[in-house]
Specification:
A six-stranded mixed sheet has the order 11-12-13-14-16-15. The chain is globular. The longest helix is centred in the last third of the chain and has 27 residues, at 401-427. The chain is 50% helix and 14% strand. The relative contact order is 0.09. By secondary structure, it is of the alpha/beta class. It has helices spanning 6-14, 27-42, 55-65, 83-87, 106-110, 130-134, 138-150, 158-181, 190-200, 206-221, 227-247, 278-284, 286-292, 297-310, 314-318, 326-330, 332-342, 365-376, 385-395, 401-427, 455-472, 514-525, 546-557; strands spanning 19-24, 47-52, 71-75, 94-98, 101-102, 115-117, 185-186, 260-268, 349-357, 361-364, 432-433, 438-441, 483-490, 495-501, 529-530, 538-542. The protein has 23 helices and 16 strands. Pfam families: CDC45. Keywords: Cell cycle, DNA replication, Membrane, Nucleus, Transmembrane, Transmembrane helix. This is CDC45 cell division cycle 45 homolog (S. cerevisiae).
């Protein structure tokens, strides 16, 4: 059931208990976890943190901890399945679920004993009513059979009519549930939810606010929410930032060397440009790369013209941002915006937030997202998912800037790999139109293919590639199609990872129907698939089943 008072129905309930925190591997979940950890430390609440990467992980973690814990907090996992059916917990186990994945399973919505949903109801409009889903016909049947027995053995048409009506009602219930569960999408951030809890408890700090900002920015960077939703939530965060800045104006530590200042920025959509050279950032940012079509010779020529139009010397543009002349840096944003308008890039600036740690270190919220995501899916060493999770969690602390800078270095490598792979796929025509959708498969042996065996990296590549394809194709119909992308997952096991994303559109509501489509295609062809990710539009599939699985998808979606 939905919790209406998060302070009373959640925080005060767990305040004197031991709690198991089961946290999904995404940036919003990491930020929510950091906020909740800070609150728990503040009130000396005992907890155990368990990172979970998928449903199997979640089931294993629950089995390992169900004897020691009664209260479980699930962050960005658990809402979109019938959790009690999956975990089979004891009757006294209580689950508090804060999950951005939609739709929420209706069984979780109407279970008022063990499932407590930390979800804003205004974000979850359209939940089918209890009667539409669970209405029981047993009583009516009982009444009808009683009437028939009074009439002796007369074979009345009454029962048949009732049966037809009951079947129709059952079909209607199933249809209502199917329609509700058809599309997967994302709503309010978990980090924002827990920040609002901290605010209600009057225990919110600047660190917590910054984590909430990063959680929001994560959903924008990874294209999970609409632009309108992002702008609305930015306005909410801006009010909190103003409140904190005003509160700390007169404090002595506002000028100390280890102070923290969060500011609202109208900054450039150039990824990591303050930690890179301006030239490399323009080349490896999705927005500018697609606008210029940098995978073509014409695009490269247009970029040189753009730099000339700005009047920036190539020597300055190609060196690290920190080393550029102060006279150039002062007006850089305005200069870039003016030239961008001439080249059709009217949205080169975006509302966001920046932070200063002391006098030297400045980061944008998107820098933090890219760094943490790169650490979370690091493929450089044979380290476990839990090790990567802890590293990414550490990078969000201002006390561990070394870890953050290492994450930024990894993020640069990842973005260059994405850019090179996109250019390669476009230039070699690897994107095929399969009728109802576009399809691209990364062959084993493709440079950096190991990097794209991770779900976040492959999804980022998939979105970048679709945007680039839409900018480059002349086929108007293809511009309206969704994209399915597959890459090798585990060569020894012979598996591939498959991701489906909705069509590229500024006005898109970001709803993704591939989760249900993948299930049906696998079922109809007996393909060996693993639906283990919390995001249902990401699955693992046996390589030899790939062609029949795709054929079934084409038939299903045509």
């Amino acid at each position: 059931m939905f919790i209406t008072d998060i302070r009373k129905d959640f925080y005060e309930v767990v305040a004197n208990q031991r709690v198991a925190l089961l946290v999904a591997s995404d940036i919003d979940a990491l930020c929510a976890c950091k906020i909740l950890q800070a609150l728990f430390h503040c009130d000396q609440i005992q907890y155990t943190l368990v990172p979970v990467t998928g449903w199997q992980d979640l089931g294993t973690a629950f089995l390992e901890h169900k004897e020691q814990f009664r209260y479980f907090v699930l962050i960005n996992c658990g809402a979109n399945v019938d959790l009690l059916e999956m975990l089979q917990p004891d009757d006294d186990s209580i689950f508090f679920i804060c999950d951005t994945h939609r739709p929420v399973d209706v069984v979780n919505v109407y279970n008022d004993t063990q499932i407590k949903l930390l979800i804003k109801q205004d974000d979850d409009l359209g939940v089918p009513s209890y009667d539409d889903i669970f209405r029981d016909d047993d009583d009516e049947e009982g009444d009808d059979s009683g009437n028939e027995s009074d009439e002796g053995s007369e074979p009345s048409g009454k029962r048949r009519r009732f049966d037809e009506g009951a079947v129709e009602r059952r079909i209607e219930r199933q249809r209502a549930r199917r329609e509700w569960e058809l599309f997967m999408c994302f709503f309010c951030q978990a980090a924002m939810m827990f920040f609002e809890l901290a605010w209600v408890l009057t225990k919110d700090t600047k660190d917590m606010l910054w984590w909430a900002v990063i959680g929001l920015t994560d959903q924008w960077v990874h294209d999970k929410i609409t632009h309108m939703k992002y702008v609305t939530d930015i306005a909410t965060m801006q009010r909190h930032v103003s409140r904190h800045n005003h509160r700390n104006e007169d404090e002595e530590n506002s000028l100390s060397i280890d102070c923290m200042r969060i500011s609202f920025e109208y900054d450039l959509r150039l990824t990591l440009y303050q930690h890179w050279s301006l030239y490399e950032s323009i080349c490896n940012s999705c927005y500018t790369s697609c606008s210029f079509k940098l995978w073509t010779l014409n695009g490269q020529k247009k970029l040189q013209e753009f730099l000339a139009d700005m009047g920036l010397p190539l020597k300055q543009v190609r060196q690290k941002f920190n080393s550029m002349d102060m006279s150039i840096k002062e007006n850089l944003r305005d200069v870039i915006e003016e030239s961008s308008n001439k080249y059709g890039m009217k949205d080169i600036r975006i509302q966001t937030f920046g932070v200063h740690f002391g006098f030297k270190n400045r980061f944008l919220a998107s820098d933090m997202v890219h760094a943490a995501a790169a650490l979370l899916e690091s493929a450089e060493k044979d380290e476990s998912n839990s090790d990567n999770f802890i590293k990414a969690l550490d990078a969000l602390s201002r006390s561990n800037l070394e870890r953050l800078h290492s994450g930024i270095d990894l993020a640069k490598k990842k973005l260059m790999a994405v850019q090179q792979t996109v250019a390669s796929c476009i230039c070699t025509n690897l994107i095929l139109s399969q009728g109802p959708f576009l399809y691209c498969y990364l062959m084993e042996g493709t440079p950096d293919v190991k990097l794209f065996s991770k779900p976040m990296a492959l999804t980022l590549l998939c979105k970048y590639l679709l945007k680039a394809f839409v900018h480059s194709t002349r086929n108007k119909r293809c511009r309206l199609l969704p994209l399915i992308m597959a890459a090798p997952k585990d060569v020894d096991k012979g598996t591939v990872i498959v991701v489906g994303i909705p069509p590229e559109s500024e006005t898109s509501d970001k709803k993704n129907f591939f989760g249900r489509a993948f299930e049906k295609a696998a079922e109809s062809t007996s393909s060996r698939t693993l639906h283990d990710h919390f995001d249902t539009s990401i699955i693992e599939l046996k390589s030899e089943d790939r062609s029949k699985f795709l054929d079934a998808l084409i038939t299903l979606l045509s």
